[in-house]
Write a structure and sequence with these properties.
Layout: E1 2-7, E2 12-19, E3 27-35, H1 42-60, E4 64-68, H2 76-95, E5 100-103, H3 105-113, H4 120-130, H5 140-172
Parallel strand pairs: 1-4, 4-5
Antiparallel strand pairs: 1-2, 2-3
Length: about 180
Amino acid sequence: MRVLGVDPGLTRCGVGVVEGVAGRPLTMLGVGVVRTPADADLGLRLVAVEQGIEQWLDEHRPEFVAVERVFSQHNVRTVMGTAQASAVAILCASRRGIPVALHTPSEVKAAVTGTGRADKAQVGAMVTRLLRLAAPPKPADAADALALAICHIWRAPAQNRLQQALALHASKAPQAPRAPHA
């Protein structure tokens, strides 16, 4: 499974591609950051994020895209920029028919470090260890993008089984009788 992880942001949008399956060693195929100038027009910044993500999709051809789920922070401006960059990533993947999964920050931290309260340094250290890298990816947004991809690879099999079980259950549920047409 090849996953593009996206840690959304307008100034720094972390991107990282990881390949592998749960229970086996994972491989990093690429990591980086799509940057936009803070003083640029919002529309131009969103276009730059789109172009950057499109480049990563073209180059790495992921089967899935994992995006950090935007959560409420104290700074509304930061949340808005994060949400806008997140929407761009979701749009780019969806336009190509690539499934998108959203993972909360605490879900990603728990998957990678064992605790949902891990700090950035702990996430970076575990990403480095799990992917057998010489040093933690910099900046932290890049490490976070890799952590998102790892989280998805590890959680996707269980989520898929759950969805299949729910679909099977729904298909076996008795259907309500339909009213005759007049």
